[in-house]
Write a structure and sequence with these properties.
single chain; 137 residues; alpha+beta; 3-stranded antiparallel β-sheet; two-stranded antiparallel ribbon; 5 helices
Length: 137
């Protein structure tokens, strides 16, 4: 959430699964697979469709059900504008993926990050830090 202390404008950014996706966790975990036969599926001839679509929602107010806000940073209007640019291109996730995988192979570790609401917050804070926002604990 952001507030402009001069104008009083307020914004909240949320990364959420689309409504039909959010109704069941299994729709996010298991893709829809269509194939003409089991044999064709074994050969890899199948259409795979994931149902894990997600969007960034932008509110120009603070919803009433949000009761507690903690100030984490101070920034400028320029940084806020760059943050909006980051939202449009830097946070390049269109899927809500609740599974995270880490395979320890030493220097060649495999990491597949989850992309959920808390990942959005973490990435947003790192982006703001990279834009020289003054963060505090």
């Amino acid at each position: 959430a952001f507030v402009n202390n001069v104008t009083g404008k307020r914004y909240v950014f949320l990364f959420t699964p689309e409504e039909e996706v959010a109704s069941s966790i299994s729709t996010m975990l298991f893709p829809e697979i269509k194939t003409s036969s089991h044999f064709q599926a074994l050969l890899g001839n199948a259409a795979v469709k994931w149902h894990n679509q997600a969007d960034i929602e932008i509110y120009e107010y603070w919803p009433e059900h949000y009761k507690c806000f903690v100030r984490l940073a101070e920034t400028t209007g320029d940084t806020f504008t760059r943050f909006l640019d980051w939202l449009n291109g830097g946070f390049d996730h269109d899927g809500f993926d609740p599974i995270e995988v880490f395979v320890d192979e030493g220097a060649e570790a495999l990491v597949l990050r989850s992309t959920m609401c808390h990942d959005f917050v973490t990435d947003a804070l790192w982006a703001l830090y990279g834009m020289n926002a003054t963060l505090r604990a």
